[in-house]
Amino acid sequence: MEASNYNDFIETNWDNIKENIRSEYDIADISFDTWIRPLNYSGIENDTVSIVIPSDQAQAINYITKKYKNFFVESISVMIDHSINVNFILENEAKKEEINTKEKIYNINSENANLISKYRFDTFVVGNNNKFAHSAALAVAESPGEAYNPLYLYGGSGLGKTHLMHSIGHFILDRDPNKKVLYVTSENFTNEVINAIRSGNSSKMNEIREKYRSVDVLLIDDVQYIIGKDATQQEFFNTFNELHSAGKQIIISSDKPPQDMETLEERFRTRFQWGLTADIQAPDYETRMAILKKYSENYGKEIDNAVFEYIAENITSNIRELEGAYNKLIAYSRLNKIDISMDIVEEALKDIINPNQIKEITSQNIIEMVAEHFNMTSEDIKSKRKTADLVLPRQICMYLCKELTQEPLQEIARALNKKDHTTIIYGIKKISDGVKVDKSLANKIDVIKKKINPS
Ligand code: ADP
Ligand code: MG
């Protein structure tokens, strides 16, 4: 058994250890119940196991030490196949010690790791969109430097890359607080390098190198912001090489796979692919529902499923927005002291979700959008001027108004400042004939349509 596993082993087998002592040394039930059963395991450090005596037995510490210490020493040493010593401590002292070690650990490692406490594996919902990335992240967290190195996570914004990276960091530190884990955004890394260079002080640069090259696990987020920035990029790759060849774990995130990073030099591109590349996709409906339900676990009250369905149906591309919608709903309900239900959802989320968007398209919206597309004003389009550059935008307006609104031709004519609707009929025909033969016109119409109605 490895030294780092002694603690886990003793902790999980604590009751077995005591039972073993009971049978090995033939201890009477009354003695066992009085002296041994109440003892708790506290930890192991430098091969010394600390055992806590509860405060109501404090006066018996000398007796327990004299009578039972050797039983524990022998029993535990045999079980872990490694000779240890035992130290009995009183409950109150143990508490003090625990706080001290926690503080120590916190100061040395956890705090410097830059980890956000809520981004953990147990707050991360696994769905079809992220299953592979999640498994890869967990494997790396369980065996840093051994499973996949580097781990390269990529995907669009708001899909959970940063959350997964922090989860890895927490997992490693939770299991081994002595591991040096460091999370950094590419932006901060770049700033550090730039400032060091600007200061002209070479010891500043050495400090940065020291800092990044002494870690066991480096998490570098949004690496796309480093690529192309010469000095920073070079600094990063030197760090990368040094850590990698020392068997230290590197976890990288980016918005694209390495092969799509155009400005990335070939030798780095292959390096990023040495380990494992895993992508995160947009969440499907089931995953969106599961995430919303996960968020609502803290709400305290039952929320109607229809509420989740409403949000999950309307916010589809991005988990950050999903979370934003949920938080907005909670805030609205608190502020107005109304429970969350279908009655308030639409009102609470009206700035974020507009399910009637398609029906709300009017001639006016269309004219504005077309004008914007052609770099003119809607007044230009509505004007009586007959210059050539105005003809096409006007006709596109006519065509799109017909296609995207329910408005009668007379109304479209009025919106465009035309006296009668025959001009409108003519314009519509020009465009509908045109798109059949003119690919670039068809594409233009398509782009404008998407601008008008993004969904
Ligand atoms: P990215 O780094 O890919 O832009 P983040 O990791 O910052 O995305 O995620 C955006 C928000 O969505 C965060 O608040 C995060 O907690 C949440 N989130 C993302 N994926 C999940 C998931 N699978 N389960 C729960 N929350 C998630
Ligand atoms: Mg991120």
Q: With helices defined by DSSP (H or I, 4 residues minimum), what is the helix count?
A: 21
Mean pLDDT: 89
Number of strands: 8
Assembly context of the chains? single chain
Shape: elongated
* Bound ligands, each once: adenosine-5'-diphosphate, magnesium ion
Please give the order of strands in the largest beta sheet: 5-6-7-4-8
Report on the biggest sheet.
5 strands, parallel
| Strand coverage percent | 5-15%
| DSSP helix fraction | 55-70%
Task: Explain what the structure shows.
- It is a single chain.
- This protein is an alpha/beta fold and 455 residues long.
- The chain is built from 21 helices and eight strands.
- The strands form two sheets. A five-stranded parallel sheet has the order 5-6-7-4-8, with helices on both faces. A three-stranded mixed sheet has the order 1-2-3.
- Strand 1 and strand 2 (48-53) form a beta hairpin.
- Residues 102-108 have low confidence and may be disordered.
- Bound molecules: adenosine-5'-diphosphate (ADP) and magnesium ion.
- The site of magnesium ion has 4 residues, from helix 7.
In short:
By secondary structure, this protein is α/β, with parallel strands linked by helices.
